[in-house]
Amino acid sequence: MRIGELAERAGTSTRTLRYYESRGLLPARRAGNGYRTYDEDDLRLLRQIRMLQDFGFELEETRPFVDCLRAGHPAGDSCPASLAVYRRKLAELDGLIGQLADVREQVARQLAAAEDAAGEAASPRCEMTGPQDRPQDRPQDRPQGRP
User: What is the 3 state secondary structure string of 34-81?
Assistant: First the structure.
């Protein structure tokens, strides 16, 4: 198949395919007429790359998976190098989850403190009030003798 068909079937652009080719992730085979040619194995490589990128993997992190498929393995994650990348990614995600949990805890503490402060302050300063709502401006609260 030619580059346009591969791009369409993989859900990407021809520019992306050329970039992958320049990075050595996609083979650069050419027909006698000079056109790039691809096959179903190339489509599998692209689908593997896209899936991993959807998971948050950097392009270079997909290389062991691509190499595994090129070596003839049925799945890109069946080689030791691919498994090592999975382990590193999980450790990275665990670290990020820990950081997010810390931030969440800090925000929850801030919210609780703000709610406590708002409950103690029981003044209407956060509500919209007009002059008629201030005691000095209500006729019944004015000192006698003032208009």
Answer: CCECCCHHHHHHHHHHHHHHHCCCCHHHHHHHHHHHHCCCCCCCCCHH
Cα–Cα distance, 117 to 104 (Å, whole number): 20
66 neighbors 76 (Cβ within 8 angstroms): yes
Tokens of 31: 């027909």
Residue pLDDT, tens place only, 87-117: 999 999 999 999 999 999 999 999 999 988 8
Q: Tell which residue, 13, 15, 38, 16, has the closest CA to residue 28.
A: 38
CB atoms within 10 A of CB 86: 16
pTM reported for the whole predicted model: 0.67
